[in-house]
Amino acid sequence: MSRVVVLTDLHIRAEPEPGKPDADARLLSAIDHINRYQSDADLVIVTGDLAHSGERAAYDKLASHLTRLALPHVLMLGNHDNRAAFLDAFPQISPDENGHVQQVVDLPEARLICLDTLNGPPYSYPFSHLGVLCAERLAWLDAALSGTDRPCILFMHHPAHKTGFAAMDAIMLMHGPAFYDRILAHGNVAHIVCGHVHRTISGSHRGVPFSIFKSLVGQMPMLFDLMDFHMETDEPPAYGLLMISDDGVVAHSEDFGLTDLDALRAASPQNASSQPK
């Protein structure tokens, strides 16, 4: 069985913003928790909105923070990111032939396909927070889906279908029905993982299971009708954990600041009975 940790919507800022959660502290706390409790995972995938405003200084901070992460990691882009500034700060990452930050990772049980849904810059559509998969990116996806006999798990920042939140559904992936037509034609997508909504959401769309994970710095309140995508509540941050087997995908969400797992383990009768006397 393979295990993949999912972080999303870090929103690292060049300078802290008063009244907002400390994004740097949240990320470092998540990294420490992952290092301690998920050390047997195969990798960490971060599904976009790495920086809040796409500043080079924010990406430099992120690069420094990630030196503490003991697992290999894949970084993806979201609507708050800046592709050029990101690539300047992470020169070890090579974009595809069209300049997009996309990657395939093959595990024994599945192929992981990490997509770049960032609209810009430069912005090809007036509303910059919308997700986009242009013709070049769709061709890349076709090749990735065609090039394996394993089931595929797609990772993308923007959901390609509505989630019920009016504000976030207004800035979802463009041309979602066409995207689903394309992946269903391939017939090998086992799961889709997204961020963007700042909420733990799961279900299926057109028969394809999906998981959306929480942000580290603020969650969308359960007010479905408000057209305010800046509204957030400071609920506990979380990361996702995918357990991938030949039988499918199990998705967990860990609110990592709530429970002292070491204390629970130490207090467990099973743990006590296993200690030598």
From TrEMBL:
Q: Does the keyword Membrane apply?
A: no
Calcineurin-like phosphoesterase domain: from which residue to which, for each copy? 3-199
EC main group: hydrolase
E.C. numbers: 3.1.4.17
Q: Write down the superkingdom of origin.
A: Bacteria
| Gene Ontology MF, one | 3',5'-cyclic-nucleotide phosphodiesterase activity
Which controlled-vocabulary keywords does the entry list? Answer: Hydrolase, Iron, Metal-binding
Name one matching Pfam family: Metallophos
SUPFAM superfamilies given in the database record: Metallo-dependent phosphatases
The record's listing under InterPro entries reads:
Calcineurin-like_PHP (IPR004843), CNP_phosphodiesterase-III (IPR050884), GpdQ/CpdA-like (IPR026575), Metallo-depent_PP-like (IPR029052)
> Its family?
Belongs to the cyclic nucleotide phosphodiesterase class-III family.
Its name, as the record gives it, is 3',5'-cyclic adenosine monophosphate phosphodiesterase CpdA
Its ancestry begins with:
Bacteria, Pseudomonadati, Pseudomonadota, Alphaproteobacteria, Rhodobacterales
Q: Which gene encodes it?
A: cpdA
